[in-house]
Every structure is written in structure tokens, then in C-alpha cells.
Amino acid sequence: MSYHHELSYSRESRGISLSSRGIAADSPAARILVIEDDREMSAEIVSCLESSGYQVEAASDGTEGLGLALSGRFDLITLDRMLPGHNGLQIAHALRGAGLAMPILMLSALSELDERLAGLRAGGDDYVIKPFEPAELAVRVAVLLRRTALGESPPLLLRAGDLELDLVAREARRHGRTIELLPTEFKLLEFLMRNPGQLLSRRMIFEHVWGYHFDPGTNLIDVHVGKLRKKIDDAEKPSLIRTERGSGYILDAI
After folding, report:
1. Most buried residue among 17, 48, 136, 170 by CB atoms closer than 10 A?
2. Euclidean distance between CA atoms 213 and 134, whole angstroms
3. Are residues 132 and 20 in the same domain?
4. In 3D, which of 161, 156, 155, 162 has the Cα closest to residue 176?
């Protein structure tokens, strides 16, 4: 499924409004530069970000993008890895070398661990693998801008007690044991670990992890929570994921 079709399905068929789900820009005046050589994808990214309240400008190759980025007038940059002129790694290196600290959100179909690490080491603050849901892009942009405003660095490792979630390697660890997670299991655990000790309703979990409107009759969440428990729990300790019957789930950071 192309990114264009995913966007149409998410915003129309699913009836999702980015602003109604709290994904509006933290600052309506935030300025974003989109560096992407695929014209169709660039247009979709621009549309997604503009609908979230941002001011957006686009560059179609690495040379143009680097020139605009070096002006220092953007609050955040979305940067494709594979570009004509200068590639994404070269642009990130150049910007950091020039002392520019605006967040850089890398976008790439290169999903291997070494590629993700290369993007982050070059100066990227986050890395999104193509294809992606537009709602996820909008959220990641909002989070990066909020952290910049608060002077925070984006965490690459989440911890809840003795459980670790490596956002770069895309794996979980407990007691030194690596836990292999399927993509949906990883997204579910990441959402829980970003909100430790908080009651997360089944609706909140469903719409965040699966990205569309909650069906009260589905047992999809319960099935995935059950599978996740089997992978991360310690047989000698209480389950990390606590069920609040009729309400949702809580991740206990013990």
C-alpha cells in the first residue's frame, strides 16, 4: 500500500482528524522543512503537517535542502536518507557541523539496525521507517518540538523496573535476556513504557497502537497483551502489565 493510499484511508475512511486527536502543533508557528525527492510523498507529508498547524516548506533534492536548512530559520527538519545532490547523512553531518541543533527526523525505507544507527549518529533525533502512518509522523514531530522547547533529549532507551526497551535496536531486554518482539508487540510495549503507572484505557491503546477507531467488541488488545506478558514477565514476580477490569491496563514500573 502506498503512502498516499495510507493517508487517504487514515484521514477519510477511518474518519481520523489529526487535530481532534490532540496532534496539533504545540506551537502553531513552528516552521518545518521537508527534504524529500519523491514529489508525491513530499506533497503528502506537507499536507499532513500543514493539517496539524505547522508552517511547511519543501525541498526536492539534497542540494536545495541543505541550502535552506543552513539558513537556520526552521524549527524541525524531516529528512529523507536517499537524496540526489547530498544524501541525508551528509546533510545531517553538515548541519551539526555548522552548530545547528534543530531536531532532525530521518525518514527512510532502510530499516536495518546499522542504517538506523547511522542516521542517529549522523545527527538525527528520530528515525521513521517507510511506509508509515501520517498520524505517527505528526505525533513524532510534535514530540520532538515539545522536547526541544523543554530542553530535553529524546530517549533512545526506555526503562520500567528491570525491563528495558531499546528504541534503536527495536528490542526488549530483561535480566540481560533479549526478548524478540513482533512489530505490534513492540508498539504496544513502547506505549505502555512511555506511560508507566498510568491507567491506559483500551480505547487509548487501540487507537495509538493500531491507529484507527476503537471497536468495543474486539479482543485484539487482550490477545496481544497476553502474548506480551508471556514474553516479558518473570515467573517469580507479579506481571508488569496489570489489568484494571472494565477500564484498561497499567504498566507497573517495579
Report:
1. 48
2. 15
3. yes
4. 162
Q: Are 97 and 69 in contact (CB under 8 A)?
A: no
Distance of CA 201 to the CA centre of its chain: 20
CA distance 156 to 194: 12
58 and 79 share one domain: yes
Question: Alpha-carbon distance 36 to 147, whole Å?
Answer: 24
Question: 80-92: per-residue pLDDT in tens?
Answer: 999 999 999 999 9
* Of the residues 121, 150, 179, the one at which a domain ends: 150
- Which residue range is the domain that position 100 belongs to? 3-150
Could you give the number of structural domains in the chain?
2
Final residue before a domain boundary, out of 150, 178, 203: 150
Residue 170 C-alpha cell reads as 527495536
- CA-nearest of 223, 213, 160 to 189 is 160
User: What does the pLDDT look like over 95-154, one tens digit per residue?
Assistant: 988 888 899 999 998 888 888 888 888 899 999 888 888 888 998 999 899 887 766 555
Separation of alpha carbons 128 and 21, rounded Å: 20
> Which regions of 83-207 does DSSP assign to beta strands (E)?
104-108, 126-129, 157-160, 163-166, 171-174, 177-179, 200-201
List the one residue out of 111, 105, 144 whose CA is nearest residue 123: 105
pTM for the full predicted model:
0.56
Among 150, 145, 139, smallest CA distance to 194 is for 139
Q: Looking at the structure, tell me whether residues 117 and 207 fall in a common domain.
A: no
Three-state SS at 32: strand
How many residues would you count in the chain?
Answer: 254
